[in-house]
Amino acid sequence: xxxxxxxxREEIQAHxxxxxxxxxxxxxxxxxxxxxxxGALEKEFASYxxxxxxxxxxxxxxxxxxxxxxxxxxxGDEVLTxxxxxxxxxxxxSLIGAVPVxxxxxxxxxxxxxxxxxxxxxxxxxxxxxxxxxxxxxDMRPISDFAKRHGLKVLEDVAQATGAEYKGQKVGALGDxxxxxxxxxxxxxxxxxxxxxxxxxxSAAELCRMLRMHGxxxxxxxxxxxxxxxxDEMQAAFLRVKLKYLDKANEDRxxxxxxxxxxxxxxxxxxxxxxxxxxxxxxxxxxxxxxxGRRDRVQEKLQAQGITTMLYYPVPLHRLPMYxxxxxxxxxxxxAAGEVMSLPLWPTIDPHTQLEIASAIRTALx
Length: 366
Ligand SMILES: Cc1ncc(COP(=O)(O)O)c(C=O)c1O
Hints:
Blueprint: H1 9-14, H2 16-29, H3 36-49, E1 53-57, H4 60-70, E2 78-81, H5 88-95, E3 99-102, E4 125-129, H6 140-149, E5 153-157, E6 165-166, E7 169-170, E8 177-181, E9 195-199, H7 202-211, H8 233-244, H9 246-264, E10 270-271, E11 279-280, E12 286-290, H10 295-304, H11 331-339, E13 340-343, H12 351-364
Parallel strand pairs: 2-3, 2-4, 4-5, 5-8
Antiparallel strand pairs: 1-9, 6-7, 6-11, 8-9, 10-12, 12-13
The structure holds pyridoxal-5'-phosphate.
């Protein structure tokens, strides 16, 4: 593999001494789970977002599961969400016994289309999960207005968009609660699994804290069935280093995206990602569309030249076996699944590598 989809070695090398210092301080402290680094990371992350509470846990998936329960979603409730996301978004809903109900996406942002929500509303609808896919914010104002009108809770899935903004505010600070992932490939990635919940709501925050610790406030005085979902000190210490450089890394991603736009936008058959005026995109992925059934052939040609690309996502969630209802279709999500292709992108990607990728795409489409 000559050009990988993601290469973090340079970024890690740049802060190597700080990571090693963080590692040694945790070793010396003798505290490994939910210690001072987790507490400090929670404070720093809450202040980065501009929210009252941040509660760390062990993955983005758990952040969604615990977040849904903390918002009072019960078995049998319906949760409106997008069919064009990573599986965990819907899986979390199913895992608590609730039902994901899909609504189609906007073709430009790949995110939940606020105009589509009304028709899926039923007396059982309890909450909404907008996903800020690829680093582009969902259109939160109409989504929140819809939720308020119908008394629904909003849980933002921010796994792919840490640091992105909606109308000048950080995403993850806009709904009732938000769920972040620190999976290593994410914009703020740990060196293992990790996640975070964020909220302004004191009682939801208290529930998140209990649920991540076997449903207890005090050890051995368990009050509800919860989870073992804690962040460890090592990951928290690494994440505290990385959080300091997140905005710069996101800015570098934006610059890399601007360079891609320049060299890709005039290629016939390619649609480059758009950035709505309401968002600051942080390009977790740089996802283009290739029209007229040519995507798979282009991907194969690139692969033959050692250029790795990914299909996020080749199957929309409503077409996976556990959710498939053959009579139901979502036109935009299905079209996107047939056209998307994500290109190599990381903060320090070399402009020459990007040029090489663009010219390989141009040639493949000729
Ligand atoms: C949109 C979305 N939601 C949730 C998750 C789950 O996060 P994690 O892998 O940390 O469990 C991911 C991770 O890939 C994701 O992309």
